[in-house]
């Protein structure tokens, strides 16, 4: 993707808009901090998710959890590009748990729209633990 910056910008602008649409469905009555996420799959689908809070805060589901659920529900595959936004449409950095979840379903090469620009998940989560460690 890096080779065609124009495509990068178009893809990530579209993902940011899709994430903003997804956050409209968030359930965030406790924090009032709705979050939306969107990703492009290796077969060209867009998958989305939103956060779902719970009165027991530790059970809250991040938007990335819903996104990965939709990925698997709609045919699986790999994530290739990702964006996550807050209610103002500003890009967010996924939490540690969600970085690990994204690693599982996108790997090191997953390209992510971050507040500082587009980068790979390997840059965001260096030396990640993944399925390769379990094969030994």
TrEMBL record:
Family note: Belongs to the cytidine and deoxycytidylate deaminase family.
Keyword Zinc: yes
Protein name (record): Cytidine deaminase
UniProt-listed PROSITE patterns: CYT_DCMP_DEAMINASES_2
Matches recorded under CDD domains: cytidine_deaminase
GO biological process: nucleobase-containing small molecule metabolic process; pyrimidine-containing compound metabolic process
Keywords, ordered alphabetically: Hydrolase, Metal-binding, Zinc
Entry annotation: catalytic residues: 64
A Pfam family annotated for this UniProt entry: dCMP_cyt_deam_1
SUPFAM superfamilies the UniProt entry points to: Cytidine deaminase-like (SSF53927)
Catalysis: reaction(s): cytidine + H2O + H(+) = uridine + NH4(+); 2'-deoxycytidine + H2O + H(+) = 2'-deoxyuridine + NH4(+)
Binding site for Zn(2+): 62, 95, 98
Domain of life: Bacteria
GO cellular component assignments: cytosol
Example GO molecular function: zinc ion binding
């Amino acid at each position: 993707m890096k080779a065609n910056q124009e495509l990068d910008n178009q893809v990530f602008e579209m993902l940011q808009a899709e994430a903003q649409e997804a956050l409209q469905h968030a359930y965030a009555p406790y924090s009032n901090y709705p979050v939306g996420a969107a990703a492009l799959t290796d077969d060209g689908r867009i998958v989305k998710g939103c956060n779902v809070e719970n009165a027991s805060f530790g059970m809250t589901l991040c938007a990335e959890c819903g996104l990965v659920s939709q990925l698997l529900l709609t045919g699986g595959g790999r994530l290739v590009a990702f964006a996550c936004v807050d209610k103002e449409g500003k890009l967010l950095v996924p939490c540690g748990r969600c970085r690990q979840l994204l690693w599982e379903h996108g790997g090191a090469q997953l390209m992510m729209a971050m507040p500082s620009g587009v980068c790979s998940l390997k840059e965001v989560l260096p030396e990640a633990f993944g399925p390769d460690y379990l094969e030994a």
